[in-house]
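Amino acids appear as letters; backbone shape is given numerically. Here is one record.
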Amino acid sequence: MIDAEERRRLERSLASLEESLHRFATVTHRKSRWRIAATLFNKGATLVRLERFGEGLEVCGEVVRRFGDASDAPTQLLVAEALRYRRIALRNQHRREEEVEACDEVLRRFGEPADPALRDEVAGALLEKGVALAGLGRVPEAVAAYDELLRRFGAGGPDGLGGRDATPLQAEIVEAARARRNEAVTDR
């Protein structure tokens, strides 16, 4: 739940983003693809933060549809973040099956990324997949998602991404996955 002051700030921000998107739509020849993608992403993320999950889900989906094939790293990161906000919206709408599918989409799109920020997104998607599966009562699949995360991002992982090469966020995610995995195995 967000407080009234934060809600007003986000509503003003959303109005500004709407204005920018309208301007970009009328003079796109002068604006870069990146700028349009970033503004559209910010609109989707702001809608989700305002708890307007249906609208946020739609806008984040549009970011993925329109810019998902981009090859440049900044736009790929925007797409990954749009997918994260999409998962947040789905979770808040109690659409766990679709949330699992959204996690799988991140894994399909980005696989084994070299970019540390994209690795953070992939690690986060694996953790969220485990949580969503556990929430659906699919504990063995949740444990498998946690194991995959630990294999890929835990210390000494086979792909070399764990340990000292991990970003601080990846280290946090790995610790959360360990705790959730242990909890799931113990509760069996």
Remarks:
- Residues 156-161 have pLDDT under 50 and may be disordered.
